[in-house]
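Hi R.,

As promised on Friday, here is the backbone we talked about, encoded as structure tokens. Could you run it through your design pipeline when you get a chance and send me back a sequence?
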């Protein structure tokens, strides 16, 4: 597919999140190209690569390993040859579709994933877009008073309710599996950019530890509604063999299941992250124009 050398370009998709990388061949990345991609990953939060060949498992794993050690999903079926590979697959007989709901990947782990790299090989005839949202923007558009308050809180992330029996149809017997639970700061500091982001999501977060059950429910409802504002989002329409590579530490995503009974299939490799932490810094307000910012 790559018949001649094309200078790699980075094209932002919105002012707050997302960029398309044009002219990058992930099978033959130079060190200079990799460094540019690494910097773009930090700046734009999620990167999209089109016009790729179908990557072999070895190539996709090798690309992800350039960012760090790999993460193994606690519930999904694993092949003996490529245990790092998570096959994303939904079809007419599926009872669920992976990613169909706002979340950040496996936030229930004590050391949640740094990032995820997904290539889709089989696409539905229509639908199947993925939404990504900036949790930097979600934090920075809050009032300074709310920012300070949320920065004092700890959230509980659980997975039993999501994973138990989820992959039974794919041969997983999890009768004796103990699924992870973790406590993380509600506001986390990115270890590279130093920016703050909101780190709770409606899929894994079950409670704010420091509050009563009713207080927690009300506050989480407010946060989720705020996080999901369209101003913070970029929407990606997949093409065959396109790749999305997102930073789980400062984004959430939602893979729309609006294509049933069509099929959608691809491979995801996930990079291991560090234990989330909060380090106080100067509060920053977003440059985004939010209609009711001061209401």
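Update: got your reply. Pasting your designed sequence below so it's all in one thread:
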């Amino acid at each position: 597919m790559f018949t001649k050398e094309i200078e790699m370009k980075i094209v932002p998709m919105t002012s707050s999140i997302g960029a398309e990388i044009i002219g990058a061949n992930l099978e033959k990345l130079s060190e200079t190209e990799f460094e540019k991609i690494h910097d773009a990953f930090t700046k734009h939060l999620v990167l999209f690569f089109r016009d790729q060949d179908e990557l072999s498992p070895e190539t996709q794993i090798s690309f992800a390993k350039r960012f760090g050690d790999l993460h193994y999903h606690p519930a999904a079926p694993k092949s003996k040859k490529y245990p790092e590979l998570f096959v994303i697959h939904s079809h007419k007989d599926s009872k669920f579709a992976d990613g169909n709901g706002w979340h950040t990947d496996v936030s229930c782990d004590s050391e949640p994933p740094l990032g995820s790299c997904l290539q889709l090989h089989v696409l539905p005839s229509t639908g199947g877009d993925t939404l990504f949202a900036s949790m930097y923007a979600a934090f920075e558009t809050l009032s300074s008073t709310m920012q300070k308050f949320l920065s004092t809180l700890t959230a509980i992330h659980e997975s039993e309710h999501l994973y138990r029996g989820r992959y039974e149809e794919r041969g997983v017997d999890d009768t004796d599996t103990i699924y992870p639970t973790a406590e993380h700061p509600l506001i986390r500091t990115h270890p590279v950019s130093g920016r703050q982001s909101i780190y709770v999501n409606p899929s894994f977060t079950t409670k704010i530890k420091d509050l009563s059950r009713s207080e927690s429910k009300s506050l989480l409802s407010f946060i989720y509604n705020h996080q999901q504002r369209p101003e913070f989002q970029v929407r990606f329409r997949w093409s065959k063999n396109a790749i999305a590579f997102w930073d789980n530490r400062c984004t959430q995503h939602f893979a729309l299941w609006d294509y049933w009974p069509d099929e959608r299939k691809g491979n995801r490799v996930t990079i291991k992250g560090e234990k989330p932490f909060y380090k106080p810094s100067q509060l920053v307000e977003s440059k985004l124009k939010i209609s009711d910012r001061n209401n």
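One thing I noticed while checking it: The CA atoms of residues 79 and 110 lie 24 Å apart.

Thanks again,
M.
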